C-alpha cells in the first residue's frame, strides 16, 4: 500500500505543537506495519526555514520525507515545487492523506487526488472545531465557503482524533461522506543518559522543595492562559512553594501572558522554559508534579497524553479532546474553564500526593492501552484499505 501524506510543516518544526509529533508518529507506525509512506511538506519553520535538503527524499525514522522550498504566498504554506511534485506524482499512490485545512496542502492535495482519481482523507486536527472557528476571520470564512467545503465534500473520509472533534464538525454543518475516529499515537523517546532525573530542575535552578505545575504547548490564546494565570495566583497564596512552568513556542501571545503575570504579581512564581522537544521535554515532565492545560478547545491534547505516559496527574478543561478518556480512567481532574475550579483542582493535587500518584498510574495504563503505535497503526491501515477497496 502506497500512502502519500501531505502536511504543511513537519518535524523538526516543533514550534507547531502536538500535531507535528503525532503526524510523524503515525507515519512511522504505518511504515513499520508495512505501508510505503511518503510525506510531501514544506521547509517552513515559522519565520525561518528548516535546515533540511529540499526536493530530495530524506529518510526520517523509516519514512520518506520530501521537504519542498516555500514560495509566495508563504502564509498559505505554498511551495511551487511541492505543487509540481503533486501534479507529476499523485497518480503513483493508492491513497492520499491530507493533514490540513485552510492551507495549500488541502486544496492542492484534494485537486490532484480528484484529477488522478485517488481517494483522499482529510484530518482537520481541531481547526474546524467551534472555538477556533468562533474567532471571527473574514478571509478564513470566505475561504471556507468558496474552497474548503469543496475539499471536504470530495474526501472519502474525514479523520477525527476524538469523538468531540467529530461532534463539533457536524454542528458546524461541514460536509462528510464518512468519519474515522482514531486517536493519536503517543511514543516518547527514552531519556538519554544526559537527561537524568533532576536534569530539568538543575538546568533552570528549581530547588527540590518547589512544586512544579507545568503547561507544555504553544503559547496561544486558545490555550486558556486568561484562566491559568489568575487561577495560579490563588494557588500561590495557599502554596507559595508552587511554581508554574510554561514551556512552548510563541504564537505571538507571550506578550499578553507576560502582561497577565505582571497584573497578578506572579513574576517570581512563573518560569518560561521555551520550546522543549525530545529528551528535554520528557525530562521536564518527569521533574514536574502536575500537568495543566486549561484550553478553550483542543482536538486531542498530545502533551496531556505525554504527561500521562510518564505518570503525571493532569488537570484539563472540558474543552480538551481527550477529557472523556481522563474521566473514565481516573487519570486526572477535568474542570470547567474557570479560575475557581482550576485553582481548586491544582491545590487538591498539591495537598494529596497519594491521589496524584494513583492518577498518574492510571494515566500510564490508559496511554499504554489506548494510544500504542501498533494498535493505532493497524486500525489506520484497515481504514485505508477499506477506502481503497471502495474506490475500485
SSE order and pairing:
Layout: E1 2-6, H1 18-32, E2 36-42, E3 44-45, E4 48-49, E5 57-60, E6 63-68, H2 80-89, E7 95-98, H3 104-115, E8 120-122, H4 130-134, H5 138-154, E9 157-160, H6 163-171, E10 179-181, H7 199-203, E11 211-216, H8 225-238, E12 242-247, H9 254-263, E13 270-274, H10 278-286, E14 290-293, H11 302-309, E15 314-317, H12 323-329, E16 332-335, H13 339-351, H14 353-370, H15 373-391
Parallel strand pairs: 1-2, 1-7, 2-6, 7-8, 8-9, 9-10, 11-12, 11-14, 12-13, 14-15, 15-16
Antiparallel strand pairs: 3-4, 5-6
Helix pairs in contact: 1-15, 3-5, 8-13, 11-14
Keywords:
alpha/beta; Rossmann fold; eight-stranded mixed sheet
Task: List segments where confidence is low: pLDDT < 50 over at least 5 consecutive residues.
Answer: none
The radius of gyration computed from the alpha-carbon positions, rounded to a whole number of angstroms, is 21 Å
Largest sheet: 8 strands, mixed
Number of domains: 2
Give me the secondary-structure category: alpha/beta
- Beta-strand percent range: 15-25%
Question: What global shape is seen?
Answer: globular
| Helical residue percent band | 40-55%
What would the CATH topology of the largest domain be? Answer: Rossmann fold
Strand order of the largest sheet: 5-6-2-1-7-8-9-10
Strand tally is 16
Q: List the total number of helices.
A: 15
Mean model confidence by pLDDT: 91
CATH class of the largest domain: Alpha Beta
N- to C-terminal separation?
14 Å
CATH architecture of the largest domain: 3-Layer(aba) Sandwich
CATH superfamily of the largest domain: Glycogen Phosphorylase B
